[in-house]
Amino acid sequence: MATITVTNIGKTYGKDVTAVDDISFDVADGEFFVILGPSGAGKTTTLKSIAGLVDVDKGAVSIGGVDVTSVEPYHRNVAMAFESYALYPQKTVAENLASPLKSGRTGKYSDADQAKRIDQVTTTLGINHLKNRLPRELSNGQRQRVALGRVLVRPADVYLLDEPLSHLDAKLRAAMRAELKQLGAMSNTTTIYVTHDYQEALALGDRIAVMRNGRLMQIGTPEEIWRRPADTFVARSLGQPEINLLDGVVDEGRIRLGDGSLDVPVPADAPVQRGDRVRVGLRPCDLHVTSDEGSLRGRVVLAERLGRNIELTVDVAGAQLIALTSGRHGVGEGDAVTLRIAESDIHVFTPGDGDTSRLGDKTLEAVQ
Amino acid sequence: MSVTTEKTAQQTAQSLTLRDLVKTYASRGRESVTAVKGIDLDIEPGELVALLGPSGCGKTTTLRMIAGLETVTSGSIKIGDREISQLPAAKRGIGVGFESYALYPPLSVRDNLLYGLKARKVEGAEKMVASISDRLEMNELLDLRPAALSSGQKQRVALARALVRNPPVLLLDEPLSHLDASARNRVRRELKVLQREFGYTTIVVTHDQVEALSLADRLAVMDGGVVQQFGTPDEVFDDPANLFVAEFVGEPQINVLPGVVRTQDGRVRVEIGSGAGTLDTSVAPASGIADGTRVTVGIRPQDAHVSSDGGAGIEATVAYFEHLLEFGLATSTVAGIEEGIVVQTPAEQDYQPEQRVTVTAAAERVYLFDADTGERLR
Q1: pTM of the prediction?
Q2: Which pLDDT does position A139 carry in this prediction?
Q3: Number of domains composing chain A
Q4: Phi-psi region of B61 (alpha: psi -120 to 50; beta: other; left: phi over 0)
Q5: Which chain A positions have a beta carbon within 8 Å of B323's beta carbon?
Q6: CB–CB of A308 and B237 under 8 A?
């Protein structure tokens, strides 16, 4: 158990590939901290910097209040699981799981202790029945679980987990997600967990750090980054289908969108004035089909089933809005519909191309 | 591109009919393997059909037989009234788009489109390219190299190449699989609108059930070389033919629980767990299903609800609860069974571990399957 402090770390590969660019964050003792971002964002480099597998060009890493920046990985007492799994091919699953306990670096374990720890881990990961198999007799998903088990089986100050569920199918991933969360809560070990899957991040993280191009875009609780995304990148990173982004102009307490015949109220916390150009973000799951009067009136261009939900592409005043409905409304293509959105679900960003920052409400844990 | 639904003339759309299509791979000294075991499909002119299934289900082999890239062991493939199963691929009049875009990097988009036509010495190739480029609104892309294109634009070029000869049937193999999530949704909508607009009879092969549901007019769910169900997205999702279809389609995955049939008062109910309660089903009493029959019960997490009024349902205990902001997932245990039951809960609700809850579901959303064969009981 330990706190982790990362201060202004940077890492450049070769001459000009900046993998991590001046990143700082603190992880509390026992916290489950998730780093979310697309491939190439610098998530894995950040994790390896903490493990000591990457020498940072600048900055410092402390574990448990001790500066470990120049400490060998072996002596940092962190346990790391990689997306690719390194198992001893000639050893059974049980032997693979026992090997970290036999190394002696984290104390001695009697045979009974070893068996108990291994049993706890295999039960949690649902691989009890595989104990006597060799790695080659396992599926990719099973191998990944064994590799994760090798990390979790020995006590460490810190667990560093790099996309540990990425090779599992959807059902197993959902089940393992819940198991992992329980395990984290039980062992109370500080955990940093890297993923590109926003649902995993929301489900697991006590806090989430969103990364892009080597930089931290926002750190916050799942609720904070969902309700108050710091910029359009963070907003787009969470939720499927992606958040709708529309250009608009502020006018008398309303924001006019599209060709101007469509508008939404200005949220109370947005510091904007009449005539300001803004970008408005509306999540598909926050747009509700209603029979009431409203200002978001349009025609359904596409109605596509995503499972129980129907994804509607609605042509509203020359703009295309994506909305999700439960499918029980019986809305079909060509139908005229009115959409409703709560004022608190309207996100306002500064205008411009590319990703732009949120307007107003800076109560977030500010990043840099 | 703006999304429109205007339909242009569908003079090229034709039906595609598969009859008892079989593919057996035989190799000397080894047991032969039958990858496709007698498939019948009637695809209407202009229809978009998805072949959906896990790897090894026979969907790609089926597509390759239609394209003429695999010989047919037995059975028939017809475009309109024309039997094509014995024709060479080039004579079938089928446009094929593969999983990767397979564009030639040193060639401009225009030359990529011309390449296949020139190789076949097709007359009027330049005109055909101009025409498809107009239709797909991609004139501004013609002089660019593939490296300069976005993923959506590459997809459009690959589509243009499959369509340039104006084929009556279009085959697409995993057309969206290599796009990231954000681009995949956008390109999927574009593809659907284009397909509608031009009315090509189209078959899309995919392993992604959301893609199949959202894209297809009808989908054929395949497993073990056999079509398990062929129907509209609504039919496949709401009325699964068997346990395989119910489990393969839908995310989070459907709850699969052991149950026992209880018939009383002319209604068929199902008991789950030991004394945990029963649920109404829409199985007809006339179906003749006997009281006490052991069955497999399927309930989608989105169709299961936590009852607030303490009415009839399954008594369960919340084991863990995940709040995913858009919704929650409550995984609960039921006395007497090993399987947990997952309930998708509304965003505004919160649950705690150890909380006692009653889980209900509408009768028509409680699916019963034969415990041995997995066939749906109705």
Answers
A1: 0.85
A2: 81
A3: 2
A4: alpha
A5: 202-203, 222
A6: yes
Residue B77 C-beta-side C-alpha neighbours within 13 Å: 25
- Segment among A18-32, A157-171, A241-255 with least mean pLDDT: A157-171
B-contacting residues of A 194-233, CB under 8 Å?
A: 199, 202-203, 222-223, 226
* Cβ-based contacts of B253 with chain A (< 8 Å): 170-171, 174
pLDDT reported for residue A189: 87
Domain that holds residue A336: 241-349
Residue that is last in its domain, among A177, A211, A233 = A233
Domain limits at B226? 16-93+167-248
How far is the alpha carbon of A273 from chain B, nearest alpha carbon, in Å?
A: 31
Cβ atoms of residues B280 and B261 within 8 Å: no
Average pLDDT over residues A293-311: 88
Residue A1, pLDDT score: 65
Contact B322 A171 (CB under 8 A): no
What are the pLDDT digits (tens) for A121-144?
A: 898 888 899 999 998 888 877 888
* Chain A residues with beta carbon closer than 8 angstroms to that of B325: 202, 222-223, 226, 238
Q: How far is CA A208 from the centre of its chain?
A: 6
Residues A273 and A343 in one domain: yes
- 3-state SS of A26-41? EECCCCEEEEECCCCC
- Quick one: which of B70, B72, B75, B73 has its CA closest to B17? B75
In the chain, the amino acid numbered B22 is V
Query: For residue B210, which residues of chain A lie inside 8 Å, CB to CB?
Result: 306-307
Confidence of residue B7 (pLDDT cuts 50, 70, 90): very low
Helix (H) or strand (E) holding A44: helix A43-51
**Model confidence at A368: pLDDT above 60:** no
What CATH number has the domain bearing residue B23?
Answer: 3.40.50.300
Same domain, A162 and A266: no
- Which of B203, B227, B248 terminates a domain? The answer is B248
Q: What is the mean pLDDT of residues B123-136?
A: 88
Which residue in chain B has the smallest CA separation from A324?
A: B326
Are B81 and B195 members of one domain? yes
| Complex ipTM over 0.95 | no
- In chain B, residues with a C-beta closer than 8 Å to the C-beta of A259 are none
Residue B144 has pLDDT above 50, yes or no: yes
d(CA B98, CA B162): 9
Q: Where are the alpha helices (DSSP H) in B121-171?
A: 125-135, 151-163
Q: Number of CB pairs < 8 Å for A and B?
A: 85
Record the tokens describing residue A314, joined without a space.
């609605």
Does residue A21 have a pLDDT over 60?
yes
